[in-house]
Amino acid sequence: MPKLDHFIQHYQTAILLALAVLFLTMRLPQLTLLPPYVDEGLHISRAFNVLDEGQPFVYTEGGKYLQIWLITPMVALGSDPLWNARVVSVLLGLVSAVGCYFLGKALFDRPSVGLAAALFYGIIPYAFFLDRLALNDSMLGTLAIGIALLSLRLIKRQTLAAGLLLGLMLGLTGLTKLNGLILWVIPPLAILFCGDDSFRRLVSNDSLVKWGRLIIVAYGLGVLLIIPIFFAPTAHLDGPASKTWLLDAAPLGSFAEMVTGNLQRVWAYYTIYLTWPILIMALLGTTLTLVRRHRGGLLLLSAILIYNVVFIIITVYLQSRYLFAVVPFALILAGYGFVMLIDGLATLFQRTTHYALRTTHYVSLYLLLLILCSLPALTFNLRLLTNPTQAPFEAYDRWFFLDGWTSGYGLNELAAYLREQADQHGSIVVVRNDASGLTREGLNIKLANMSDTIDLETIDLRAESAHRLTDLLESADGPVYVVLSLPLAPGAVPFNVDFDNTPYCHSAATFYKPDQYNYIGVYRCGIADLVDDSHG
Q1: Contact in structure between 57 and 229 (CB atoms under 8 Å)
Q2: Beta pairing, strands 505-512 & 480-486
Q3: What's the pTM?
Q4: What does DSSP say about strands 519-525 and 480-486: parallel, antiparallel, or unpaired?
Q5: How far apart are CA 519 and CA 410, in angstroms?
Q6: pLDDT mean values, one per 10 residues, the chain (536 residues)
Q7: Nearest CA among 297, 339, 287 for reference residue 118
Q8: Is the peptide bond before 187 cis (omega within 30 degrees of 0)?
Q9: In what order do the strands lie in the sheet with 454-459?
Q10: What is the pLDDT, as a whole number, of residue 499?
Q11: 19 with 119: CB under 8 angstroms?
Q12: In the list 21, 133, 164, 377, which could disulfide-bond 123, CB 3.0-4.6 Å?
């Protein structure tokens, strides 16, 4: 609606400032209420490693460096590393919201589309949840928007500077997460759908030469920026993430069963985390894009399809956060559908009453429909701000973030218990299993200022190394506590020592996850002559 678009354009700066204030007001409260997810502990721990070692390329999986570099100066600033790391994600989320506005405005030439997309980004549980975690998935969404905007800039200006800026954004995407390289498909899609040339002219020799030079510059710079990660320590691509992908993981049924399951999971993710009203707007925008063959909409839709299809066919354990990079594109389509719906209602009103709505009426209708679309999302978000265990997570995500060994529930209680024992005994030794997780990186962060009274040790309790625990018990000056994430995951190698049945260790404390099944177990071991009570 032109009058509404003129209104938004005229007050653009004020509207974006109000959007920023609203965004931060919603994102910052209770920022550390949800305990740290296991990957957050890993990223924060590695940020401290960068500070300690002065080496930016520390051990990590999948080339996840950019976020570590961004949170490194932040975790050094204050006493709460988790809050400091998460606020980086919040600020990047704000950039994404503003980016949705400018990308929607550029692709559809309607500021109202961009504003709707930005407001949807601010309220959907998908973004509200991930923007408040120290994970790199929401950062990929920020970079996806940047790649799309710079691709449009390259199409418009066709200059070396535009190619270099695009190459910088491509490189940053690779440095964030290697699977983010899928987003490198966006520039050619932008040229195909949003370029001034027809397809016949696009594939002509002159056009190929013109675009070829700029694309080579962009992708060449992107490749140069990510090359160093392949010369980092050789273990940087190893770890739990290697078991996520189809080529590395043990087969779980047939390929068709995996794809079918992933399709069902993707549908669940979008219906739950976009919420039905906003998903319906996105489907309406998609339908209108296809019917009208809108070139900007086709760019967004093709990027969404490619990104989702790749993950559906290669990922064994498909988590919702893996798909988030293209969620901002879906929200722009939702903004398009939303604005077209308002246009249709205004036109219907004018035909039936022979009265043209004023700008204030358009704004009122816009805000009224926005509030109606937002209610389910706001209900979800309120639960995240008050009691995350009551939020209606998809079952897979609920296990990862709330109930499973990957969730941080129990970590705060564990750290408080160990501090209490250290105060009581003067000093204690805490043994963790040699595996990345909350009991290792999590305690490193929580007990960082207790090194004088709490000695943190790591032992591979699942290998043939029970003698290392024996040796430790013989030499320890204080009580020894072993902390474990239990029960063991299906298929995991059992511990060499049966901590529940050996007379040399006894259960000292138990901290349950919300499901009251998974828990962190604390065992006190106090003699030097520990017999290997092997599981066989």
Answers
A1: yes
A2: unpaired
A3: 0.90
A4: antiparallel
A5: 7
A6: 82 96 96 92 87 79 84 86 94 98 96 96 97 94 97 89 95 92 95 72 62 88 88 46 36 77 95 96 97 95 97 90 97 97 85 76 85 94 95 93 91 94 92 81 84 88 74 84 85 78 86 92 74 41
A7: 339
A8: no
A9: 454-459, 428-433, 480-486, 519-525, 505-512
A10: 84
A11: yes
A12: 377
Token pair of 146 as six digits: 């940047």
pLDDT at site 246: 37
Strands 519-525 and 454-459: unpaired
Q: Please give the C-alpha separations between residue 113 and each of 29, 334, 361, 375, in angstroms, as whole numbers.
A: 28, 8, 17, 20
Number of C-beta neighbours around residue 417 at 10 A? 18
What pLDDT, on a 0 to 100 scale, did the predictor assign at position 211?
74
Q: How would you write 47-104 as a 3-class SS string?
A: HHHHHHHCCCCCCCCCCCCHHHHHHHHHHCCCCCHHHHHHHHHHHHHHHHHHHHHHHH
Label residue 449 exposed, middle or buried (CB < 10 Å: 0-12, 13-18, 19+): exposed
Phi, psi of 456 (to 5 degrees): -90, 120
Please tell me the number of Cα atoms within 13 Å of 50 on its side-chain side.
22
Are 406 and 38 within 8 A, CB to CB?
A: yes
CA atoms of 384 and 388, how far apart (whole Å): 4
Core vs surface per residue 290-326: b (16+ CB within 10 A) or e:
eeeebebbbbbbbbbebbbeebbebbbebbbbbbbbb
- Residue 103 makes CB contacts below 8 A (sequence gap 6+) with 114, 117, 145, 148, 149, 328, 332
- The pLDDT of residue 281 is 97
Select from 78, 35, 70 the least CA-distant residue to 449. Answer: 78
Token duo for residue 161: 């500077």
Closest CA to 47 of 87, 82, 91: 82
What is the per-residue DSSP string for 281-330?
A: HHHHHHHHHHHHT-HHHHHHHHHHHHHHHHHHHHBSS--GGGGGGGHHHH
Distances (CA, A) of 382 to 32, 33, 121, 385: 15, 12, 16, 5
Residue position matching structure tokens 């675009």: 211
pLDDT value, residue 465: 65
Q: Distance (Å, rounded) from C-alpha 312 to C-alpha 318?
A: 7
Strand 505-512 to strand 519-525: parallel, antiparallel, or no bridges (unpaired)? antiparallel
pLDDT for res 199: 53
Would you state the pLDDT for residue 507?
92
CA of residue 90 relative to chain centroid, distance: 11
Nearest residue to 112 via CA among 411, 336, 278, 300: 336
CA–CA separation, 461 vs 468, rounded Å? 9
